[in-house]
Amino acid sequence: MSIIKFLKDWSLLVGIVVGSLVYLLFTNVEFLVPIGDSCGPLLVSLLPVNIFLMLYLTFIKIKVHDMRPRKWHFILQIIRTMLAVLAMIACNLSADATIKLLWEGVFISVICPTAAAAPVITEKLGGNIASLTIYLLIANCFTIVIIPLLFPMVEKGADISFAFAAWMVMKRVLMVLGLPLFFALISRKYLPRWVNWLKQFRNIGIYIWSFNLSIIMGITMRSLLHAPVSGWVLIILCTIPLVLSILQFSIGKVVGRYYGDSIGAGQALGQKNTVVGIWLTLSFLNPYAAIAPCVYVIWQNIINALQLWYKGKYGYLKW
Fold first, then answer.
1. Higher-confidence residue: 63 or 34?
2. Interval 168-227: pLDDT, tens
């Protein structure tokens, strides 16, 4: 019983550890390598399916009349954009290639949109999932504009047009966020019995995210272990996401506390869609800068795991 409780309380950390260990096992044990090579891409292909299920199960709990924009939604977008612009300026002022690499890590860690899993964590922490869902839509609309605008300024040689980048981001938003929200709202209206039956599985969303997290950890471990950078650069690229995750969670909570939604605003600014960040970095920036968003996913989920533990133990969040 204690093991089940441990897995329930620390499911995010379990996902991180299991994903890391499974990757190391299937890439270093000789007879398991072929299995890892064939199963790895299959698991990665499951990520969007799992995200759809996770969000659908969360969105069916949303009431349409609760989905309205709030002031803090736009304040956080301004803050996020300002942080990205400052990092972009720092990249352009950096004459040294290594320093520029580090600033690109900062840039991608702040410009990433909010993670699709944010409503799931917000619900578990006792926040307003309807408000955060609207924030996700607004944040991704901003993303469609600021990524095509700022990426070419960070990397002058980036072969990326405004229309192409906007379409790629929009397509991901529609597939990952739009579809589950649409089907969830349709289900609430026309399939109330089905929705009521699904609602009894209260923790399934967090378990799906933990499974997804273990897959993402495999991608993270591969990036860390195969990064051809010096030890001190790797250490800094791993430290930057820790500082940025604490900073962004804190800023979000300060803004959200003023408007009565500390939990949702903290998750909104702090919990990042690092998969998008990794893809964008590998496609258009220095590929080694992708280490930063890879490591960010570890730190943000450690923070979330500690928050979930504290909330479960004391019934409220101190931070």
1. 34
2. 777 776 777 788 989 999 999 899 999 999 988 877 888 888 998 898 888 888 878 877
Residue at 192 is within a domain: yes
Two tokens, residue 310: 């504290």
- C-alpha separations of 284 from 23, 162, 188 in Å: 26, 13, 41
Rounded CA-CA distance 207/72 in Å is 29
**pTM score of the predicted model:** 0.89
Sign of the C-alpha dihedral computed for residues 246, 110, 157 and 174 taken in this order: positive
Other C-beta atoms closer than 10 Å to the C-beta of 259 total 15
**Which residue is listed with tokens 């599985």?**
201
DSSP H helices, 10-117, are 11-28, 33-45, 47-59, 71-93, 97-111
Question: How far is 22 from 292, CA to CA, in rounded Å?
Answer: 22
Confidence of residue 80 (pLDDT cuts 50, 70, 90): very high
The answer as to whether 23 is a domain residue is: yes
CATH number at residue 114: 1.20.1530.20
The CA angle 197-203-205, to the nearest 5 degrees, is 90
In a domain, 319, yes or no: no
Indicate whether 257 belongs to any domain. yes
Q: In this predicted model, what pLDDT tens digit does every residue of 123-171 receive, in sequence order?
A: 889 999 989 989 988 888 888 888 878 877 887 655 666 677 777 777 7
The encoded tokens of residue 146 equal: 């600021």
Residue type, 9: D
Token pair for 8: 């329930």
Rounding to the nearest 10 degrees, give the CA dihedral for residues 65, 49, 20, 4: 60
309 Cβ contact list (under 8 Å, min separation 6): 9, 10
Which residue, 312, 299, 218, is CA-closest to 23? 218
Diameter of the chain by CA atoms?
A: 62
Q: Tell me if 203 sits within 8 A of 5, measured CB to CB.
A: no
Domain that holds residue 256: 2-314
Number of domains in the chain: 1
CA angle (125 as vertex; 121, 130 as ends), nearest 5 = 70
